[in-house]
Amino acid sequence: MNTQRIHLSLSHIGSREYDFVREAFETNWVTPLGPNVDGFERDLKTFLGEDVYVAALNTGTATLHLGLILLGVKIGDEVICQSFTFSASANPIKYLGAVPVFVDSERNTWNMSPEHLEHAIKDRITKTGKCPKAIILVHLYGMPAKIDEILTVAQKYEIPVLEDAAEALGSRYKNRACGTFGNIAALSFNGNKIITTSGGGALVSKNEEYVKKAIFLATQARDTAPHYQHSQVGYNYRLSNVCAGIGRGQMLVLRDRVGQRRRNNQFYRKHLSDIKGISFQTEPNDDYFSNYWLTTITINPVQTSGITRETVRLALEAENIESRPLWKPLHLQPVFSDCSFYGDGTSEALFEQGLCLPSGSILTEDELEKVVAEIRKNFTDLV
Ligand SMILES: *Cc1c(COP(=O)(O)O)cnc(C)c1O
């Protein structure tokens, strides 16, 4: 067995992170505020454009939690969430005692279906007499969702959108950055994401009041007073100045990282597309630009004489290569089994057939070749 494991997505440090972190230590800014936090927020604002405001927080999950609070979600409210996503998209709904309503994906982008979304809203209004309080839209694996269509539905029913762009920093839709479309957006800088702060997140909005309020809530909701005075429940969600230093270094290489992930994706397409039964998550047209955070494929056993994604996953694992099934839809997760779901089986089929391939920006050409060779071995009789 190959001893050097090939991972799905590893952190990839550049050359400047250590300088920013060392500066934090040398100047004794080892706090959840400081020049690196300010600098990191500025860098993100410049990168995203569109005159957004940014608050650096300590996780993407905390960012989604504050996002829902800012949108006024309270106990008993219903919140619509894409079902085909990581559990962290929906857990914050539960933190607030609110009720997730899950909506299926469509086939083109694998993200929220505008048709099922509208159907869900209408049905919830009929059943509860109330409009859902917010919509959580996800750009899965970096692929922008059908944003125009989703926003049209959201605006029609006047429901705010919380954009979960945790996987989509560097992705664009109609040449505008993902993370700038929702009333509020969440980014993540967890270790496996396109760039990292070892752990971190950011709340993004064009509404400065939301961002100011996010910073207030994230730093224990202290009123102005010489003593510690509180008239609201606060949180400890701010990013530390040390972690923000890593983020500042990572921002210098973000464009390279997007390029490297997209090159991985090209490589896999070039060497696997001839296999009947393998399909890729693909930009539907030029409006969509994915960072291809992860390269994802589906394997249809009807076209591969019964070879499944699990056949391939186990074969890769035997060679010490990490791959992973696509996210299990949240409406199938035991923790959300009592929630409503609107859909047609699209995300279930993607889950059954889908596989994420090693996609880190740190992968070498040799490693990519090895992954491709190991995948192809499963299909030697078929090509
Ligand atoms: C990673 C991720 C999150 C959570 O971000 P953390 O920084 O790990 O808390 C939320 N949503 C999606 C879609 C993610 O991939």
| Number of separate structural domains | 2
Based on helices, strands and strand pairing, what is the structural class? Answer: alpha/beta
How much of the residues is beta strand, in percent?
5-15%
CATH class annotation of the largest domain = Alpha Beta
Q: How are helices and strands ordered from N to C?
A: HHEHEHEHEHEEEEEHHHEEEHEEHEH
CATH superfamily of the largest domain: Type I PLP-dependent aspartate aminotransferase-like (Major domain)
Radius of gyration: 21 Å
Present as ligands are: pyridoxal-5'-phosphate
CATH topology of the largest domain: Aspartate Aminotransferase, domain 2
Instruction: Give the helix level as a range of percent.
Output: 25-40%
Count of β-strands: 15
Spatial order of the strands forming the largest sheet? 1-9-8-5-4-2-3-14
Tell me the major beta sheet.
Answer: 8 strands, mixed
Known CATH architecture of the largest domain: 3-Layer(aba) Sandwich
Low-confidence stretches: none
Q: How many helical stretches?
A: 12
Net shape: globular
Overall pLDDT, averaged? 96
Distance between the termini: 26 Å
